[in-house]
């Protein structure tokens, strides 16, 4: 007998709050990482030229962790603990431990290992939160859910970014004359670990996920449904594309020695070759009728919906610009506006604190824009054009670093960057929500992260070579690179065909959307 699917219950504002509140803590952790890791690395003896390779740990872990967690969470059901919540909780425990240990790092290598652990753990918690919104909400509430999630992201980032600055003004020591890590950073990371763990616990205990049977009642495939179509499509693929990926990796590796590129470019070549080999293995497994995790991930990657492929280009460029900013803002501000490149100097530490303020401002702007500007603008010009305009505002913010000579006026630059950040966090997911199958939200959201991570790896492996070759000791030029790359992302967005139309207006109660 056929059953007519029923709608999911409509979530109240309190329900939307509970679903995404854990993301507040996760973003506190990311903000502390983004605003302070370059500072910690340099305080422990890293040179400016070595920062990109040390930052490789963050995107690499995201590239590996998010598709795996997405695939596993689509197929998990642990009774009362649910489908996505086990990953929230496990990731939060590990991330909190990493945040507690990071300021105690005795050496640069130990800090780099902790960064790897921290980013992997944050990704384990973060990835299912994107799918959690789709799991728990009706389609007509997706925009409200992602907007409120973005507001929590912005708010958490403000708290995490500005905390060292606040502690400094409360009299906590911000100096590290012996080359260590200041007390302001110590206490900020410990505070962040506690906030992350408690906020994720709030979501875990205040929400109840829909079971596989309830998902079927809502007309969504369950976690144990067969996926013969994905395997058949993968088995029918030839090996030509896989060989192209493999060959590209070999060429990049060979180019490192030929053109004397930085050794970290080997990683980029290795990843290209590794994907080629993985896809060959996945195709052979599919042809043998073996539905493994590898074959599912490769099959879903090759079978992405068209809108996801179009958004991938915009994501590539917009996240390249963001990663350039996260790596280089501290040395840019410290050198250009505070006159010091010496990480042990008070002027450099003062510049590091001001970067925390700047990052807090752009995240605060993002939190406000997500619930006000984006819905208002998208209703009038559509989600795609809204995203393009916001990315253009971010490009203008980066470019303004060249014309602003007073550190205080950099706050204006952060407004444009904050508008872009709000759109990057909300609009692609609002566009995707109506195009992705609900039963595979986890894996597709994880795979979408590939187009966030790959550009970051590219920046981390290539930017150092470019800067050393053309602008040694002049990090300000990285801001021009960020502006150009973000503008390319804005033009790429205009090629996206939005299957869902305009975004409904968000009122004061997001549950009304």
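^ Assign residues to that structure.
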């Amino acid at each position: 007998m056929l059953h007519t699917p029923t709608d999911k219950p409509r979530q109240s504002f309190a329900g939307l709050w509970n679903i995404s509140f854990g993301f507040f803590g996760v973003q506190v952790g990311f903000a502390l990482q983004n605003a302070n890791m370059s500072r910690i690395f340099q305080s422990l003896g890293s040179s400016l030229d070595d920062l990109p390779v040390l930052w490789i740990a963050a995107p690499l872990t995201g590239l590996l962790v998010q598709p795996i967690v997405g695939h596993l969470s689509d197929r998990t059901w642990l009774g009362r603990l649910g489908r996505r919540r086990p990953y929230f909780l496990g990731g939060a425990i590990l991330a909190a431990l990493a945040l507690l240990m990071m300021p105690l790092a005795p050496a640069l290598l130990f800090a780099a290992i902790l960064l790897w652990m921290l980013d992997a753990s944050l990704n384990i918690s973060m990835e299912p939160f994107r799918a959690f919104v789709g799991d728990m909400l009706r389609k007509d509430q997706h925009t409200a859910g992602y907007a409120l999630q973005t507001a929590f992201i912005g708010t958490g980032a403000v708290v995490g970014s500005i905390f060292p600055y606040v502690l400094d003004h409360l009299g906590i020591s911000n100096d590290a004359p012996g080359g260590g890590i200041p007390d302001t950073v110590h206490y900020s990371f410990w505070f962040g670990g506690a906030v992350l763990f408690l906020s994720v616990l709030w979501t875990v205990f205040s929400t109840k996920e829909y079971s596989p049977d309830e998902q079927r009642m809502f007309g969504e495939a369950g976690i144990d449904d067969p996926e013969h179509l994905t395997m058949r499509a993968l088995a029918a693929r030839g090996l030509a594309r896989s060989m192209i990926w493999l060959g590209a990796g070999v060429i990049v590796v060979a180019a490192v020695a030929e053109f004397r590129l930085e050794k970290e470019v080997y990683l980029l070549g290795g990843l290209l070759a590794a994907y080629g080999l993985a896809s060959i293995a996945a195709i052979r497994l599919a042809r043998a009728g073996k539905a493994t995790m590898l074959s599912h991930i490769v099959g879903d990657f090759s079978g992405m919906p068209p809108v996801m492929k179009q958004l991938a280009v915009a994501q590539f460029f917009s996240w390249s610009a963001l990663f350039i900013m996260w790596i280089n803002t501290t040395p840019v501000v410290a050198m250009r506006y505070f006159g010091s490149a010496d990480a042990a100097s008070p002027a450099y530490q003062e510049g590091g604190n001001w970067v925390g303020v700047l990052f807090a401002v752009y995240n605060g702007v993002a939190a406000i824009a997500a619930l006000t500007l984006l819905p208002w603008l998208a209703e009038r010009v559509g989600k795609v054009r809204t995203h393009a305009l916001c990315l253009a505002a971010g490009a203008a913010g980066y470019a303004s670093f060249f014309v602003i000579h007073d550190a205080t006026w950099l706050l204006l630059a952060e407004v444009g960057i904050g508008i872009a950040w709000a759109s990057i966090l909300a609009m692609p997911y609002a566009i995707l929500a109506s195009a992705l199958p609900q039963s595979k939200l986890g894996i597709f959201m994880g795979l979408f992260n590939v187009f966030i991570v790959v550009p970051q790896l590219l920046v981390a492996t290539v930017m150092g070579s470019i800067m050393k070759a053309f602008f040694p000791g002049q990090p300000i030029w990285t801001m021009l690179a960020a502006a150009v790359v973000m503008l390319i992302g804005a033009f790429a967005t205009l090629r996206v065909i939005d299957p869902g139309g305009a975004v409904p207006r968000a009122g004061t109660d997001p549950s009304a959307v």
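The mean pLDDT is 83.
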